[in-house]
């Protein structure tokens, strides 16, 4: 009788249940001290998160929490031409001129676990990234984080009056603020958050036209 070869079962990658992680488990999470930045020069948008959550640290990707609205909203925003997930984050700069970084690199279960001092300590590094890499827009994914960065109240979400001058003195980064995309933020549902992504896409398109016109005028 011929032998029957059993098919190998492929274990699916499951989201991390952040509420059940023990300290011993946390110590084994890869990239526990953060996830890699996704940076390049002259990006259309650089997204700024507050810090990596446990799922993001475990997966090694930005906004990887299973209930986070970032990727569904980005997919429908007009900033990208197809559906994207956290596994696509490393291709965003090359494919769409979108980048990602965090104000604070330390991983935590909740953003509220970070002290104000920790967040303020990240301001010089973030400012240096904006000056050096010259993104058209820095989008802060969270109002409270932006207020710590700006050391001022954010009176209205969306485009802010403040700008960060570039090192080459050829322009400045606009600052845009949207609600946190975390699923636990109940004040804004996914549809509400999507509107900010779409507004960001419109602003980005306008700036691209503006920069293209300036380039043509110089030529």
UniProtKB/TrEMBL annotation:
Top-level taxon of origin: Eukaryota
Keywords noted in UniProt: Activator, Chromatin regulator, DNA damage, DNA repair, Hydrolase, Isopeptide bond, Nucleus, Transcription, Transcription regulation, Ubl conjugation
Class of this enzyme: hydrolase
Pfam families (alphabetical): UDG
Location within or outside the cell: Nucleus
Reactions it catalyzes: Hydrolyzes mismatched double-stranded DNA and polynucleotides, releasing free thymine
Domain Uracil-DNA glycosylase-like: start-end pairs: 37-200
Recorded GO CC terms: nucleoplasm
Extent of Basic and acidic residues compositional bias: 10-21
Annotated GO MF terms: DNA binding; G/T mismatch-specific thymine-DNA glycosylase activity; SUMO binding; uracil DNA N-glycosylase activity
UniProt region (Disordered), positions on chain: 1-21
Quaternary structure annotation from Swiss-Prot or TrEMBL: Homodimer. Interacts with AICDA and GADD45A.
Family classification: Belongs to the uracil-DNA glycosylase (UDG) superfamily. TDG/mug family.
Protein name: G/T mismatch-specific thymine DNA glycosylase
Organism: Syncephalastrum racemosum
